[in-house]
Structure formats: C-alpha cells, structure tokens
Design brief:
Belongs to the SNF7 family. The chain is mainly α and about 450 residues long. The protein contains 15 helices and eight strands. A hairpin with a 2-residue loop joins strand 5 and strand 6.
C-alpha cells in the first residue's frame, strides 16, 4: 500500500494477514465469525482508502495494486465487492448512471460512465468473477462528495448565478473533486437529489443549481439561458474594460519615458493611442452598464414575481379563512353578546338588591351605633382626691401663712402611686406663690396597680 500510515495495526502481523489475504469459503455458514471478520476488515479498508484519495469509485485492478503486501495479492476482494454491492454500499457505474436524462447524454457522459460491464451477479456469494477494470461507485462517498460540492457552490461568489459552465464548475471544485470523473459522479448524485440539472447549449456544458428553499429544480429554460448569456457578456465586458484600463496606463507611462528621453513626437503618439484606448473603454463601459441594468431589472422582476405569488397565496388563504364569515353574521353575534351581558347585569342587581333580614330597621341600627360612640367617650371614676374649693387668703405673718397653707391642702391620698421620692421632690420645687395665693403645676398621678 502506498501510505503506510493509513494501514491498520494488524498489517504487520503475518499470521493475521495470511488469514485476511486468503480467499473466502464457498459457504459463509461454515464459519460465520471468520467470514464476517474478514468482510468487515476489507470493507472498512476500501472505504477509508477511497476517502483518503478523494475518489468515489473503485475497481479490482486498483485495489489489488493498492493492497499488495510482500508480493501477495488479497484473494477475496472480488467477493468483498460483490457483498458491498448486494448490501447497497457500492453500485456499478452503469447502474448508478442508468437514470441519466438527455442532458447527460448530450454531454457524452455515456462514453465515460455508461459502458457495459463484463460480469453479472451470481445468485450465490461464490466464484462470480469481476472484470479487473469494472468500476464501482461507493455510495457513502459519492453522497459526501455531492454535499461538499453543493456547499462549495453556495458559499462561493458564483452562488448568485443559477447557471454555471462546466469549466467554471471544474475550477470552482478543483479542491473538492480530484478529477472530472469524480465531479461527474457528484453531479449525478446531486441530480438524483433534485439539486442540479445539466444541459448542452451551443456546444457548451451547462449546470443549473437549485437555490436555497427550492424543493425541486426546474429544467433549463430559455429565460435561464438568456440570463446566462447576459452574465457571460457582463463578465466578458468587465474583462475587456479592465484590460483597456491597463493598456491606457501603459501608454501613459510610455509617454512619460519618451518625454524624459526628449522624444516628443513619440510621446504624442503614445498619448493619441491612450485617447483611442480610453474611447474604446468608455464605449465598452457604457455597454457594460446597459447589461448590468438589464440584469438588475430581471432580478427585480423575479422579486416582484415572488411578491405577487405571495400576495396570491395570502388572498387565497384569506378567502378560505373568511369563507363562512359575513357582516350580517358578525352583527348578529355582537347583538347576542350584548343581550347576554344585559341579562347578566339584571341578574346581578336582583341578587344584590334583596336583603337577608328585611325586618331590621336601618334607623334603629344607626341610633345604636351613636349610643356606642357616646359610651366609648365616657371616662371612668377618678382615683384622685377632690380639688379644693375654698380660696387661699394672703397672710402677713409667716406662722399664719404656714397654718393656712397646711389647712388648705387636701387630704393625703390613701392609694399607692407609681411615683418615686425624686419625682415628688421635683414636683414640690415647682410650686410658686403669687399675690392671690399659690399656683402649682399639677401632675396627674396614676394609682399603683
């Protein structure tokens, strides 16, 4: 094998490889474990080898050359290919391309793909011989390659164009498909998946890709070809305008050189050539702007078409949704709702209007409430002594003043109060004498509980 790093570990085990290089038994039932082990080993190795090389097709000749070991060839590869075909893992190229349309036939793909094979399947997994050059498509790999090709197209600057030439596609997918045969196989798979169609226009191979959101792709139409021709013209004119710009700049530089060398006449000729080139570039640029304007109008018309289609779909949906809805029916429903609301209001008033105790007089309840309020304002009997009623008489002698003062004081209360000696001293110090008698700031003392 060409790359030792891709070989499995058992490749260096002579005993194991002697078993794997031996041919399969006539009947799998003799030893199903050995049969399946050998089949799984070669099936996985074939797929890995194709994926590493970037190909999607295999043939017995290439496999023999690839897996040659110490001069020995694997004897059971033909059986492995047959088994993979029966399991749907591989398919003959002729069968894979059996459903190609006229586009592929017009390409002449039949010369490449649809060629008769010199073998047929046997009803038993036995000694059916396969031609060394018979090519098989590995289905798993061709699906991967097709998905990769579609992703490359949609992520490229050419994604805005639905039609590409085959040469443009080859250039675009050069890092994906190693050769033209692999590219054709990937395109065939995309055609099976309704993602591309092919055509031949004036001897040129054309590929049409589906756009995101499309379930199916339509055949190449005259409108598609008209847009393709306009896009080709646009690319051609852009190339010519760019080339003429470079030529004009070249003439200008040559005129400068001639002036520095003192060749005035040659410098004038260079400037005249530059003027002619600029005029040609201006004409081509005007044509380019016209082509771009037409393409813009086409793009806008396609957008307008999509909008009109969306409007039509919306109108159809509204018609279906409002099929049984009329103004009279809506007004009738509104009236019914209003009537139900009125009935509900009347029921609520009826339920809230009737009292549960009709014999109770509201006036009596109000009088009782006022009586309770008056009672709550009444103050209970006081525990303080009575306030003195006789006035104090002023005295001129201290002894008389002392006797009158003591006699005018009220009796000492017998109840206990919540007051300390310090509070009593403070209260006594606040007593004062006036011309009319003694006035004190009285503090209401609460009895002790």
């Amino acid at each position: 094998m060409s790359s030792e790093s891709t070989l499995p570990p058992e490749w260096e085990d002579d005993e194991r490889m002697n078993f794997l290089f031996s041919d399969f038994k006539e009947n799998r039932e003799v030893n199903t474990t050995d049969w399946d082990s050998k089949m799984d080993f070669w099936t996985s190795l074939i797929v890995q080898n194709c994926r590493r090389r970037g190909t999607v097709c295999v043939n017995l000749q290439d496999l023999n050359d690839t897996f040659r070991r110490k001069g020995n060839l694997p004897l059971g590869l033909g059986t492995v290919i047959q088994s993979m075909a029966r399991c749907g893992k591989t398919q003959r190229e002729s069968e894979f391309a059996a459903n190609i349309d006229s586009g592929w036939l017009s390409w002449g793909v039949g010369l490449l793909l649809v060629k008769p094979l010199k073998w047929t399947f046997s009803t038993l997994l036995g000694r059916s011989h396969i031609a060394l050059e018979a090519s098989f498509v590995v289905i798993e790999l061709v699906k991967e390659k097709a998905a990769e090709l579609l992703a490359v197209y949609r992520s490229s600057p050419l994604a805005s164009r639905t039609l590409l030439s085959f040469q443009e596609l080859c250039t675009l997918a050069s890092h994906v498909c190693v050769d033209e045969s692999t590219l054709c196989m990937a395109l065939l798979q995309l055609q099976r998946e309704k993602q591309v169609v092919v055509a031949l226009q004036d001897g040129e191979k054309i590929v049409k890709f589906s756009q995101p959101g499309q379930n199916r792709i339509s055949p190449v139409s005259d409108v598609d070809m008209g847009i393709y021709q306009l896009q080709r013209s646009e690319n051609m004119l852009e190339g010519k305008v760019e080339a003429l710009g470079q030529e004009s700049e070249k003439c200008r530089e040559e005129a400068k050189v001639c002036l520095r060398q003192g060749k005035k006449s040659q410098a004038l000729r260079c400037l005249r050539s530059r003027k002619r080139v600029e005029k040609r570039a201006d004409r081509l640029h005007a044509q380019l702007e016209t082509v771009k304007g037409i393409l813009d109008r086409i793009a806008h018309s396609q957008t307008d078409k999509l909008v009109v289609q969306a409007y039509q779909a919306g109108v159809a949906a509204l018609q279906v949704s409002l099929k049984d809805v009329t103004v009279e029916r809506a007004e009738s429903l509104v009236d019914q709702i209003q009537e139900l609301c009125d009935n509900q209001e009347e029921v609520s008033q009826a339920l809230s209007g009737g009292g549960l105790n009709p014999d109770v007089d509201t006036d009596e309840l109000e009088e009782e409430l006022e009586s309770l309020l008056r009672d709550s304002e009444l103050v209970g009997p006081s525990t303080l002594p009575d306030v003195p009623t006789h006035p104090f008489s002023p005295a001129t002698e201290p002894s008389v003043l002392g006797d009158n003062l003591l006699s005018s004081l009220p009796s000492v209360p017998q109840n206990h109060f919540n007051i300390t000696d310090e509070e009593l001293d403070t209260e006594l110090s606040r007593l004062t004498l006036t011309e009319s008698g003694m006035i004190s700031t009285t503090k209401i003392l609460e009895p002790a509980q």
